[in-house]
Design goal:
The chain has 792 residues and is an alpha+beta fold. It is 41% helix and 24% strand. The chain contains 22 helices and 28 strands. The strands form 6 sheets. A 6-stranded antiparallel sheet has the order 8-7-6-11-10-9. Helix 5 (144-159) packs antiparallel against helix 8 (264-303).
């Protein structure tokens, strides 16, 4: 194939293939590599079926050579370099005439977006169908099992699952228990029976409890607890979906199919939707059960024999009483009907003042109040009770009475209550409280921390500490110190890896003689592990930062050396181009050559500016920026820079406009300030090509102000500050090129001269850069600021 044909194909952006008469690939451009990942060398000389496994559209595979004729674009599958099939639109076109007659050009266009849209539409239709089915099912389901069976059946019939099981989380969310199962496959009877007889104890984070788990082949997936059994039953594809509720996970839906599943995203999307919907239905059922219980609970409590209950009005008359209260006090229903019972008749005289005060407070602010008191029986005897009341509105009160007769004689002393509370506290705290007599015999061993050591409270009492910890030398050393009468803190690392912090305190008898030691041991294993882990992470982070800083220094040194080395050949090349351009312009027949030389000269100037940017960055990084301050007219300097950009502005179709109120003179470094204005003008013409660029120079008090406005693509809000960073950009490097250093250099130079720069922009409406400089220049004796901190 001619080299000119290759150049033409390479210059085109669309993915292209060139075929000879034998249907072999003779050329592939860069667009094809970007689309499918095949390089030109990998495809040269290979048959077209390498890329088109099913042959070219409109060209039967049995024909030995392609027909040199155009064909309308067709949708076809192509094989990417990674082995995946992708759908594209392919168009066949013969190469027109010349020595390349018979050459066939195949152009491709990606259909990824269309394929994804079609997939999403299909998924949406499946969701609607499933949603309609579930809505109908849930409207008639009466309990959890019936609703779960309907869900599993809908998933099986509409989504092709062979078998489905709903597992409920029970026993503190630690065990999965089967609730119901659906399958239309009668051959799975044994598997169904085994499933309904099984329960599973869950690990700390069981699969499917918080997120769905999808598998193409459960036999090879360790996340499926029953993968091997399922495979033996001929089940391959699997999906475990959590059923989340408002406050907890109700359980999981397990779906299995005989055929391996192919569309993971669709399965997970539909499965998660079903699980969420099912969870809401279960929440609603629970809420209905709770509301029913709230309605029935008061009646059940009234009819029970647990408490005596009665209602009273604002005058203290009993309006009603349950059978339990009447039996407790020996009264009858007739006594209530005839209004013989009041708070006064039921309360001993010595307690009536307290009772009336509590009732007044209850009627005034509605607060609940409970207290121990006495109710008088019909025979005149007193019954100790716990009374509690709450208001019903309109002065009415409901009161409960709990008979304390069986508890009052057995009340514990204050000392016993303190001992019980202390024992309960130690029994549930993650500590070990122990004591040893003077011979090292354990006399006390309590605390929840004993479980981690393999003991129960009191189990080792009467045993010698020297026998118990014969294999723990550090413990024996500290025990001997404590039995010698020393008080201290120790840290013991046991052979099982546990780490304890122990406070040893000597015990003495009433005469002051040493009687043993008391110890409180706290398990600090987790705390120490976390401390070591944090220390290791900090050390690794420090090493990584040091390495990153070293690499940044090496990069800056390389950029500095490379920029210096490139300046010399660039200067020589610039002189040569200038000489050639001068000669071409003097010869009338070399107009086309002159145009090409001008284009080359512009590219060379662009490259030179990029080298200057790299040199400036290296100087800033090394702290070698020095300012040569003198009086500079900012208005005149801007006008000169804009004159240099007139030719480029005409070429890009932009109009340069300068608004100035007169000379603005300040003490700045003229070269650095000229570079700042140049970078801002370059930026405006690059991103605002074809639109006016407006520059305004004026002063305000002791400040000089420069504004550069373009009407180009604008800058997104999140990028307004980032674009001033080193090697940062807000657009694609393919479209606009450059190193991303221009605005970084602008900010560094402006801040070095005591000023500041920022930008305002609206995406699609252009940007305005604001530059502020003090007319007096930077403060004397103030060094230029260091480059921005951080790694770039």
């Amino acid at each position: 194939m001619d080299i000119d044909v290759r150049r033409v194909l390479d210059s085109l952006g669309d993915p292209l293939l060139a075929l000879d008469r034998s249907a072999r690939i003779v050329h592939a451009n860069a667009g094809l590599k970007e689309l499918l990942g095949w390089s030109r060398l990998e495809l040269l000389g290979r048959p077209i079926t390498t890329v088109f496994p099913g042959g070219l559209p409109g060209w039967p595979r049995e024909e030995p050579a392609p027909r040199p004729m155009s064909a309308p674009p067709q949708r076809v599958g192509v094989l990417a370099h990674d082995g995946h099939l992708r759908e594209v639109e392919a168009r066949l076109s013969p190469w027109p005439g010349g020595g390349n007659e018979g050459l066939l050009i195949v152009s491709l266009r990606s259909l990824d977006a269309q394929v994804e849209l079609e997939r999403q539409l299909r998924l949406s239709q499946r969701v609607q169908v499933l949603d309609a089915a579930l809505t109908q099912v849930f409207s008639s389901a009466s309990d959890e099992e019936e609703a779960a069976y309907a869900v599993l059946r809908a998933c099986g019939e509409l989504e092709g699952w062979t078998l489905g099981t709903y597992w409920r989380l029970e026993r503190g969310d630690s065990v999965l228990v089967p609730v119901t199962l659906w399958t239309a496959d009668e051959a799975l009877g044994g598997f169904v029976h085994d499933t309904l007889q099984r329960t599973f104890a869950l690990p700390e984070r069981p699969p499917g409890q918080r997120e769905s788990v999808w598998s193409q082949d459960v036999a090879r997936d360790v996340r499926f607890p029953r993968g091997d059994v399922s495979a033996q039953a001929g089940l391959r594809g699997g999906l475990i979906v959590p059923v989340p509720g408002g406050n907890r996970v109700h359980g999981v839906l397990e779906l299995l199919s005989r055929a391996p599943r192919e569309d993971r995203e669709a399965d997970e999307t539909l499965g998660n939707g079903v699980g969420l919907y099912f969870g809401r239905i279960l929440d609603r059922m629970l809420q209905l059960d709770l509301e029913h219980a709230r309605v029935e609970a008061p009646r059940s409590l009234w009819d029970s024999d647990l408490l005596g209950l009665f209602t009273s009005d604002a005058q203290g008359r009993l309006l009603d009483a349950n059978p339990t209260l009447l039996r407790m006090l020996g009264y009858s229903r007739r006594d209530v009907r005839e209004e013989r019972l009041t708070w006064s008749t039921l309360t001993p005289p010595r307690e009536r003042a307290v009772t009336e005060s509590a009732l007044r407070r209850l009627r005034a602010d509605g607060s609940f109040h409970s207290f121990e008191g006495t109710l008088l029986r019909e025979n005149g005897g007193g019954m100790p009770v716990l009374l509690g009341s709450t208001g019903l509105g309109e002065g009415r009160v409901v009161t409960f009475a709990l008979d304390l007769s069986d508890w009052k004689p057995a009340e514990a002393s204050p000392e016993q209550e303190v001992d019980a509370r202390l024992h309960s506290l130690i029994a549930h705290a993650p500590v070990v409280l122990f004591s040893l007599d003077r011979d090292g015999i354990v006399t006390l061993s309590e605390g929840h921390g004993l479980e981690t050591m393999g003991f129960k409270p009191g189990q080792v009492v009467g045993m010698s500490v020297f026998d118990l910890y014969r294999a723990e030398p550090s413990v024996l050393t500290h025990a001997r110190r404590a039995l010698a009468g020393e008080e201290f803190l120790s840290m013991e690392t046991l052979s099982n890896g546990m780490l304890y912090e122990t406070h040893w305190v000597p015990l003495r008898d009433p005469e002051g003689r040493l009687a043993g030691t008391l110890g409180l041991a706290v398990d600090v294993t987790q705390r120490e592990h976390e401390a070591r882990w944090r220390a290791r992470l900090f050390s690794e982070a420090q090493e990584a930062r040091a390495e990153a800083e070293r690499m940044v220094r090496l990069r800056d040194e390389f950029l500095s050396v490379a920029s210096h080395e490139l300046k010399t050949p660039l200067t020589s090349l610039s002189l040569q181009l200038h000489t050639l351009l001068k000669r071409a312009r003097t010869r009338p027949g070399d107009a086309e050559l002159a145009q090409r030389l001008e284009k080359a000269q512009r590219q060379l100037h662009k490259l030179a500016r990029m080298m200057d940017e790299l040199l400036d960055v290296s100087r800033l990084a090394e702290g070698r920026l020095r300012l040569e301050l003198c009086d500079v007219d900012l208005e005149q300097l801007v006008r000169e820079v804009m004159e240099r950009f007139q030719e480029e502005a005409l070429r890009t179709g932009s109009r340069l406009e300068l608004r100035a109120e007169g000379p603005v003179v300040g003490r700045w470094d003229r070269t650095k300030l000229e570079q700042v204005v140049t970078n801002l003008m370059t930026n405006a013409l690059k991103y605002g090509a074809g639109a006016p660029v407006e520059v305004r120079v004026h002063s305000s008090g002791a400040l000089a102000l420069l504004e550069v406005t373009d009407h180009g693509i604008g800058i997104a809000p999140e990028n307004l500050e980032r674009i001033f960073g080193k090697f940062e950009r807000a657009v694609s490097v393919r479209q606009y090129g450059g190193f991303g250093l221009g605005l970084y250099i602008v900010r560094q130079l402006v801040e070095a001269m005591g000023g500041g720069v920022n930008v305002e922009s609206t995406p699609g409406a252009g940007a305005t850069f604001h530059l502020v400089l003090p007319l007096a220049g930077p403060e004397r004796g103030l060094e230029p600021p260091p480059p921005q901190a951080g790694l770039h």
